[in-house]
Amino acid sequence: MSQAVLEFKNASIFQRENLILDEVSVKVDKGEFVYLIGKTGSGKSSFMKTLYGDLPLQKGEGHIVGHNLKTLKEKDIPALRRKLGVVFQDFKLLNDRTVKDNLFFVLKATGWKDKKEMEAKIDEVLDKVGMKTKNFKFPHQLSGGEQQRVAIARALLNDPELILADEPTGNLDPQTSVEVMQVLQEINNNGNTILMATHDYALLLKYPSKTLKCDENQIFEVVQKTV
């Protein structure tokens, strides 16, 4: 029996009073790698923001990692976000802290207490993204691709049930994009569920997978043609 980590039924997504997406019915099962594509302004970001509690779901049904988005209260948002790993286009690393201290900051903020356990967890996630030997560096000493690897490691800290990657290769050159994509693929092969919003159609061809498209206020699954 497949297990949905994300499911919307007849949901409508608004930015203030503007309808962005209507009649959204989509499902992401545990272990899947799913792309979210669409032109700028088609609603990808609004959809992503709804998933991590930045935009309220006003109409229809939406469940994500055991939370009901329709009845989500502000006080529940931190608990929701602990079950999600979010990777942004612009890395969002703290520039005045080393890689290790960036990750320490997140663990402390999410309630970890034991220093040994924290250090072990940081080593584990940095190892997964090939950045363990650079944990003493500051973000400005790293390339864009390395910063994004650290951002992916940060997203893995609390063993999320779902990783939301919002244009994770948007600021990277094609070669680096492929390297970051390989990291995400490997993480997915280890059992992590990933929903990745992207403009980069070259990656879809290179790594075909289930694809959802935002277009004309709708989200629908597209069948990829084999190349």
TrEMBL record:
SUPFAM superfamilies, alphabetized: P-loop containing nucleoside triphosphate hydrolases
Originating organism: Patiriisocius marinistellae
GO CC terms, sorted: plasma membrane
Function: Part of the ABC transporter FtsEX involved in cellular division. Important for assembly or stability of the septal ring.
PROSITE patterns in UniProt: ABC_TRANSPORTER_1, ABC_TRANSPORTER_2
Name listed for the protein in its UniProt record: Cell division ATP-binding protein FtsE
Keywords: ATP-binding, Nucleotide-binding
Record-annotated ABC transporter domain positions: 6-227
Annotated family: Belongs to the ABC transporter superfamily.
Keyword Nucleotidyltransferase: no
Pfam hit, one: ABC_tran
GO molecular function ontology, one term from the record: transmembrane transporter activity
